[in-house]
Amino acid sequence: MDLSTLMKSVVGHSPYPKKKHNSEARGDCCDKCHCDLPRSKETRPPSKYKEGRDSYIASSPPADVKNVAEALASPTKTRVSVRGKIVQEEATRYVTVKNEDNVKVKNIYLEDTTKKCKIALWRDLADQPIRPGDYVEVSDCITNTFRNEVSLSTTSKTAITKTKCPEETVTWEIESVCIEESKATMLLKDDRVVTAPVKSLLEAFPECMEEDLQQYLVSMCNPTMVVKCTFKGSDLLSMKF
Predict the structure, then answer these.
(1) Compositional bias of type Basic and acidic residues: which residue ranges (predicted)?
(2) pTM for the whole structure
(3) Which of 162, 177, 197 is the last residue of a domain?
């Protein structure tokens, strides 16, 4: 009897190493190899990393406030904020946008001393409690061009806030004046026709009597007379020649 057979019969096991089961071998291997598995990328907040134009707008600073004329002269898809008086509104409509049905939209028309523009109020903004006559600021709109007409559209970042009626100064270049009773009608160089109370003209020219006012103003139009007018809404506060 050889030595290995003798030891097996005496102590109950072979002198040679026992073969390990596959699962035990894998366990030993893992104990010896302390490998760090690569970690998955950290989860980013979805609100900051959404793709698309609206998500870019949401993370960018507010758009600068421009007068209406400057806003309409901006390149297409420019973000702008505007202030002015609502002079007209249309009924709310329901349209289909990118396979989404029944999307609310309402058009309003905003005017300042430079120009008037159409603004499309989308979704919940169409329900804002604003009416013609209100002075508002509409922030973060996008300029659009359709059939050679430039207009503004609200975005996901747009906010509409009511503002106080501001004082605004405009310059008139008057070519002719006609006075009837308590109102003066003036023809401007750009072919606009404007009116002003005779009282405001008399305050601007205290040296002139009311009965001589029309002749005096016509004589001042040589060929035009430049006047700066300060308004608060539709009220003329002062005129300076």
Answers:
(1) 40-54
(2) 0.54
(3) 162
